[in-house]
């Protein structure tokens, strides 16, 4: 099974560019076309927050229009730039959005993989946090299927990357969250967004990753005094190959068309 993750799409109203420079809608359209061309086809696409740039209704309307071209089912998560009501209004056919109270958290059963989507957003704040109610929901939800391979998708990562201005607004009080996860060994991977860069680590024996944005990247500046900035690096998205035996392998897929594929030949000219 192949699962795709997009994140931090930061869609603006039609005709506007993020930070006066980034045509996020155009980048997302290219990402959608790229995903539709993949073989084998992806089974699902998770978009892990900061869907819109300012949480405006026209931004969500444009996002819904672009994502409607995806051949695979789409599952949305909320980020710190988002408005839950705006997401729900723009995606009325996505029944999973109408679930547990105000929070956008739910389970997607993909057959062979159980995806738990968490809502780490805190209204009006750039950082993420799981309140007691959300942690309790996660604990109960994971306990319902202890033998089913599980991935968790969310916006804010529970680990530091070394990029100072982003680390200050990652998931707050991650210890309580990790204490829930370690009680449920079926959790194979936690997939996050927010940082606009590809990063990977393990915490308490659980694999964790951050997906890059398909548009602009947060500059890789590990100077503790480095100012916030973005860089127009080659756009990427993250893929997860879920093997029949339960291994979850993460890949980065550059968005676009490139020279190749070319066959490998041995020194005698015979194809390998």
Describe it for me?
This protein has about 270 residues and is an alpha/beta fold. The protein has one domain (about 1-255): Metallo-dependent phosphatases (Purple Acid Phosphatase, chain A, domain 2). It is built from six helices and 13 strands. The strands form three sheets. It has a six-stranded mixed β-sheet with strand order 4-5-6-7-9-8, with helices on one face. Strands 3-2-1-12-13 form a five-stranded mixed β-sheet, with no helix packed on it. Strands 10-11 form a two-stranded antiparallel sheet. Helix 2 (about 55-65) links the parallel strand 2 and strand 3. The radius of gyration is 19 Å and the shape is globular. About 40% of the residues are buried. The mean pLDDT is about 95.
Could you name the CATH homologous superfamily? Answer: Metallo-dependent phosphatases
Radius of gyration, rounded? 19 Å
Q: Give the tally of β-strands.
A: 13
Overall geometric form: globular
The run of helices and strands is EHEHEHEEHEHHEEEEEEE
Content-based structural category: alpha/beta
The largest beta-sheet arranges its strands as: 4-5-6-7-9-8
State the separation between the terminal residues, measured CA to CA.
Answer: 27 Å
Give the biggest beta sheet. Answer: 6 strands, mixed
CATH class: Alpha Beta
The structural domain count equals 1
Q: Per DSSP, what share of the residues sits in E-state strands of 2 or more residues?
A: 15-25%
Approximate helicity band: 10-25%
Instruction: Give the low-pLDDT segments.
Output: none
CATH level-two architecture: 4-Layer Sandwich
User: What is the number of helices?
Assistant: 6
What is the CATH T-level topology? Answer: Purple Acid Phosphatase, chain A, domain 2
């Amino acid at each position: 099974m192949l699962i795709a993750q997009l994140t931090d799409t930061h869609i603006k109203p039609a005709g506007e560019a993020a930070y006066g420079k980034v045509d996020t809608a155009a980048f997302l359209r290219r990402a959608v076309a790229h995903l539709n061309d993949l073989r084998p086809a992806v089974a699902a696409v998770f978009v892990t927050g900061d869907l819109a740039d300012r949480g405006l209704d026209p931004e969500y309307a444009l996002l819904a229009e672009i994502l409607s071209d995806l051949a695979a089912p789409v599952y949305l998560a909320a980020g710190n730039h988002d408005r839950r009501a705006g997401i729900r209004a723009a995606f009325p056919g996505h029944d999973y959005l109408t679930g547990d109270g105000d929070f956008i958290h739910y389970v997607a059963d993909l057959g062979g993989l159980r995806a738990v989507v968490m809502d780490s957003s805190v209204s009006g704040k750039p950082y993420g946090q799981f309140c007691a109610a959300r942690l309790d929901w996660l604990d109960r939800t994971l306990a319902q299927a202890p033998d089913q391979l599980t991935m968790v998708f969310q916006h804010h990562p529970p680990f530091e990357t070394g990029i100072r201005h982003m680390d200050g607004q990652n998931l707050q009080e991650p210890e309580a969250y990790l204490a829930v996860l370690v009680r449920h060994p079926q959790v194979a991977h936690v997939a996050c967004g927010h940082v606009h860069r590809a990063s990977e680590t393990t915490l308490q024996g659980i694999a964790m990753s951050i997906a890059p944005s398909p548009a602009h990247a947060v500059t890789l500046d590990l100077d503790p005094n480095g100012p916030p900035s973005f860089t127009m690096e080659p756009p990427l998205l993250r893929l997860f190959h879920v093997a029949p035996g339960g291994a979850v392998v993460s890949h980065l897929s550059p968005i676009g068309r490139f020279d190749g594929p070319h066959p490998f030949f041995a020194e005698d000219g015979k194809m390998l």
